[in-house]
């Protein structure tokens, strides 16, 4: 095993797969000569050249549409949209073209395309550079939606997605980029239908997504000191959703807290709560709780931003509440 | 018969096929056999035919919603086309698409529900053609109304920046559903839309199949030789309402005017001047009538898909490598 940053993990996934498959090309704003505004594509322009690593104009919808056109004609584009907050600009391309082109044309084509995008708040980005919109896309059949929490997740999931024949969104939390984690020396691929149990426990199940996996682990650590054994699940993929791992854990613990950074209403937690109500209601010994952002745009000023976003304290409070029941 | 007459006769045949196919669809609508909608392409035939006749099988196109001339000229089967429109299992999209029809093996890459989404898709397909070092070209058909789609100009821009083999073919019938062009679109010719991006364009009489074809040959040659994108604007007439069953909403006058500019009739007159015997045209028409009857029979005999087939085909099973 060796230690890499989240940025390096994504970079390695792209580099390794691009070396193997000449059909993979990268497109996006500043991904080429500059190597990406966060360094994710650093060195790829130099290694693979301007044909395969393309800087694009400020035309998000067109760039995403070009990606679909490439994919249905046999290439494997990786399109970067700098902020997931800008996915609204290319929503038709994502929800109608990427997701539906295959199905509505009788499966005569496939759309092997990855759309990478950064997400999340906590750095003073304000309302249009801080959102967590993954729940919107789990509502659209046809898309894979990945949201890695660690460098290990990021590399393993992205490598699998780069070999998949289906379109996917890949959410990268902005505060994860500089985090470090261990990955194997050798190549590896992670399955798309398997959540990861990060810490075992018997009292309560914490299902967390992306950046919030770290907060959930911190919370679980503190709860452990107080005698509460939380099981922490890193969801990894929002779609397909690994409900089996969640239900199996809830069967053991009888309590469920879902932690996500998207706003609470209509979120991933709402879906998970509904699944457990439908398929595992009598496994529960307490009501399901959701820890999520407040139903607000993310405000700029640090005290307000902190107030709106989830954190370890809020998770601990939610766990204590379900432990009382 | 000389080569010019033979070529025109081929175009004539494809235009008649396109017209009669459209009439077949209207017949099926009247018989209540079509669950969805149909945007008739009657009056537009010279555009898809004049362009597609010089495309190779491996050239790609993204079709416009007005009629089926693009698919027919690319060699798609009328029976399977109509079966799709009727929601039958034997349709090109197995009943999942309706007018969303594709056959990548013949370069027919499909049609978007939101107008203009195919601008960047065609740029992407053209980028594939270029990166794979082929000399394939890509054609994107669209209407005058769709020239206002936000994706149009950035797609022209990117096609020019990357010098891609893509041809944007506008069918300008002056109507976007109920709104005539001067109420929605600045008076600049649509063929001039590329001026801001150094993409050349030309406007031709879109009811004259030879005029369309001349422009298409030039654009195809340009694209094939790696000289980049271009625009062809074809002025034409929409004879029918936006969709079958709709009112005309004021478009009747243009529809009537269109009847004086029938692309099929003018080709017929040319053929007669070229001394192609009328009996030849009649025989050809009869053959097409028979094909349409065969298509009709195929459609009515075809089964609907089983309801559960709805769950099939959303995801591809495939994966690259090990």
Tell me the β content of chain B.
5-15%
Shape of chain A: globular
| Overall pLDDT confidence of chain A | 98
Low-confidence stretches of chain B: none
What proportion strand of chain A? 15-25%
Alpha-beta classification of chain B: alpha/beta
- Count of discrete structural domains of chain B: 1
User: Would you list the SSEs of chain B in sequence order as H and E?
Assistant: HHEHHHEHEEEEHEHHH
Largest sheet of chain B: 5 strands, parallel
Number of DSSP helical runs of chain A = 11
The profile of the biggest β sheet of chain A is: 7 strands, mixed
Structure summary, number of beta strands of chain B: 7
Low-confidence stretches of chain A: none
Task: State the end-to-end distance of chain B.
Answer: 58 Å
**Secondary structural class of chain A:** alpha/beta
Shape of chain B: globular
Care to describe what's here?
The complex is a heterodimer of chains A (325) and B (322). Chain A contains eleven helices and 14 strands. Chain A is an alpha/beta fold. Chain A has two domains: 2-183, 3-Layer(aba) Sandwich (Rossmann fold), CATH 3.40.50.970; 196-324, Rossmann fold. A seven-stranded mixed sheet of chain A has the order 3-2-4-5-7-6-12, with helices on both faces. In chain A, α1 packs parallel to α6, α7 (212-225) packs across α11 and α8 crosses α9. The longest helix of chain A is centred in the N-terminal third of the chain and has 15 residues, at 6-20. Chain A is globular. Chain B is an alpha/beta fold. A five-stranded parallel sheet of chain B has the order 1-2-3-7-6, sandwiched between helices. The mean pLDDT of chain B is 97. Chains A and B meet through α3 and α4 of A and α5 and α6 of B.
């Amino acid at each position: 095993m060796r230690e890499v940053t989240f940025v390096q993990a994504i970079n390695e996934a792209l580099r390794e797969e691009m070396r193997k498959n000449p059909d993979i090309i990268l497109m996006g704003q500043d991904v080429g000569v500059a190597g990406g505004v966060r360094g994710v594509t650093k060195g790829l322009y130099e290694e693979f050249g301007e044909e395969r690593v393309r800087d694009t104009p400020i035309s998000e919808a067109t760039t995403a549409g070009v990606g679909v056109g490439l994919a249905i004609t046999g290439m494997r584009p990786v399109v970067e949209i700098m902020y997931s907050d800008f996915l609204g600009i290319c929503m038709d391309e994502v929800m109608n073209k990427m997701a539906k082109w295959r199905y509505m044309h009788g499966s005569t084509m496939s759309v092997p395309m990855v759309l990478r995008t950064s997400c999340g708040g906590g750095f003073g980005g304000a309302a249009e550079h801080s959102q967590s919109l993954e729940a919107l896309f789990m509502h659209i059949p046809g898309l894979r939606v990945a949201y890695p929490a660690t460098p290990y997740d990021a590399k393993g999931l992205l490598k699998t997605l780069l070999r998949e024949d289906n379109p996917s969104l890949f959410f990268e939390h902005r505060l994860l980029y500089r985090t470090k984690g261990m990955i194997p020396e050798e190549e590896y691929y992670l399955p798309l239908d398997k959540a990861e149990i990060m810490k075992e426990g018997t009292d309560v199940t914490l299902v967390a997504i992306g950046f919030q996996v770290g907060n959930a682990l911190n919370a679980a650590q503190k709860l452990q000191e107080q005698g509460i054994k939380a099981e922490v699940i890193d969801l990894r993929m929002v779609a397909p959703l690994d409900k089996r791992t969640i239900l199996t854990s809830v069967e053991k613990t009888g309590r469920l807290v879902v932690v996500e950074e998207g706003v609470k209403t209509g979120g991933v937690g709402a879906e998970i709560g509904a699944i457990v109500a439908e398929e595992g209601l009598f496994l529960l010994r307490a009501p399901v709780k959701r820890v999520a952002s407040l139903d607000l745009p993310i405000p700029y000023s640090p005290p307000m931003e902190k107030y709106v976003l989830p954190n370890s304290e809020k998770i601990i409070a939610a766990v204590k509440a379900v432990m009382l029941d | 018969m000389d080569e010019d007459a033979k070529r025109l006769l081929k175009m004539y045949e494809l235009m008649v096929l396109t017209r009669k196919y459209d009439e077949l669809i209207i017949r099926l609508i009247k018989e209540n056999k079509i669950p969805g909608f149909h945007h008739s392409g009657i009056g537009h035939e010279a555009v898809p035919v004049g362009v597609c006749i010089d495309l190779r099988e491996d050239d790609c196109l993204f079709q416009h919603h007005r009629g089926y001339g693009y698919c027919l000229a690319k060699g798609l089967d009328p029976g399977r086309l109509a079966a799709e429109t009727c929601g039958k299992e034997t349709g090109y999209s197995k009943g999942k698409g309706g007018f969303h029809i594709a056959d990548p093996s013949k370069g027919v890459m499909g049609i978007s529900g939101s107008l203009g989404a195919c601008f960047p898709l065609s740029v992407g397909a053209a980028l594939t053609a270029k990166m794979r070092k082929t000399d394939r070209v890509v054609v994107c058909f669209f209407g005058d109304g769709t020239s206002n789609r936000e994706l149009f100009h950035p797609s022209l821009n990117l096609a020019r920046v990357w010098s891609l083999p893509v041809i944007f073919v506008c069918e300008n019938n002056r109507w976007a559903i109920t709104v005539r062009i001067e109420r929605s679109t600045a008076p600049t010719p649509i063929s001039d839309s590329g001026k801001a991006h150094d993409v050349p364009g030309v406007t031709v009489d879109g009811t004259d199949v030879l005029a369309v074809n001349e422009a298409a040959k030039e654009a195809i040659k340009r694209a094939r030789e790696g000289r980049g994108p271009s625009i062809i604007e074809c002025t034409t007439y929409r004879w029918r309402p936006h969709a079958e069953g709709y009112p005309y909403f004021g478009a009747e006058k243009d529809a009537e005017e269109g009847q004086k500019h029938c692309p099929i009739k003018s080709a017929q007159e040319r053929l007669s001047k070229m001394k192609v015997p009328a009996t030849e045209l009649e025989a050809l028409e009869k053959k097409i009538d028979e094909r349409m009857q065969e298509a009709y029979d195929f459609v009515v005999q075809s089964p609907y898909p089983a309801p559960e087939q709805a769950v099939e085909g959303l995801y591809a099973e495939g994966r690259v490598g090990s």
